[in-house]
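Pinned message: reference record for DNA polymerase IV
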Amino acid sequence: MIALQQRTIVHFDLDCFFVSVECLQDDSLRGKPLLIGGSSDRAVVSACSYEARKFGIHSAMPMKTALRLCPHAIVRSGDIERYSEKSREVTAVIADQAPLYEKSSIDEFYLDISGMDKFFGSLKWTTELRKKIIKESGLPISFGLASNKLVSKVATDEAKPNGQLEIHFGEEKSFLAPLAVEKIPMVGRETGAQLRRRGVETVKTLSEVPISLLEAWMGKNGIALWKKANGIDESPVVPYYEQKSISTENTFPADTIDIALLHAELVRMTEKIAFELRQQNKLTGCITVKIRYSDFQTVTKQATIPYSCSDHVLLEKVKDLFQKLYDRRLLVRLIGVRFSHLVQGNYQINLFDDSQEMIALYQAIDHIKNRFGWQYLMKGTNVTPPERKMYNR
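Predicted structure (tokens):
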């Protein structure tokens, strides 16, 4: 068997990110039970402070329930634009220092610093980077340093709040062994309950279950779970600049100046790729709109936005960009929409002012689109008469 090359992977995680940004703006909030989300009875908790968690509060909980558990909690509506700005600020610091990094979500990063020991010492270099991030952003951040992404992420969780932890090569299994099975990424509440019913409560016990038995219990997920329990993770750090964009463009069968038609097509395209974003559990931080006129001149306009994958947020910006871009009043041959600056995340993080019904609506819409196809559920304004249909590319 050929031994895998030893790697050095860092996982950075901004602690209670939304809460920390709010505390940075208002120092009086520190040390208090703080809830981020809408203030109405139908709103949900998007994030909460460690102090609030002591009362049993967690994200996605109905705000009404959270306030019953902790009546004296402070509620802030949240500001995804400010959170996005702080995320980009931290990204800039990491990008300036790290040889290879992956932005896995709005507040998480993986760094591959393999070989750094020859020059600086991995722990020393990472510690200094953490101090730099804290100094320049004002935000608390934790890190785990290990031989792969899985163990580094678990180490970060164990180092929180605002701490750091190194797991030396060869110590992965002994580090994971005493932890509860729920500490393993991909083991949610349902999977954890299923394992516990079978007497599997710790990672050590999980690692000792025959892989064939885990596969029988959970299919292919059982094999992946066995590898994680044994500290095995070969997944690479994907360079952030290589994160793919999601785009679509449509060429008209005949050049047009029909504004209503153009707007309807923008809605259709935006809904299509926003659904793709949610399918991939991603958010976009940049939107580009493209127009090609009948004379083949092509123009584009883009804007950086607060991270989102919600139709109503993205549609508003797409329409705004189109209005600013379409100023020649010429016949249009092609239009396109592209989402870039992608990070992992879900739509709940920017529904600070929305209700449980809004979240349920998105989930129901995506369920129908998953089952029947994205084109079977669209906004009424997007229904195009047969004679106006276009060629998709």
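Pinned by admin. Summary line: Residues 382-393 have pLDDT under 50 and may be disordered.
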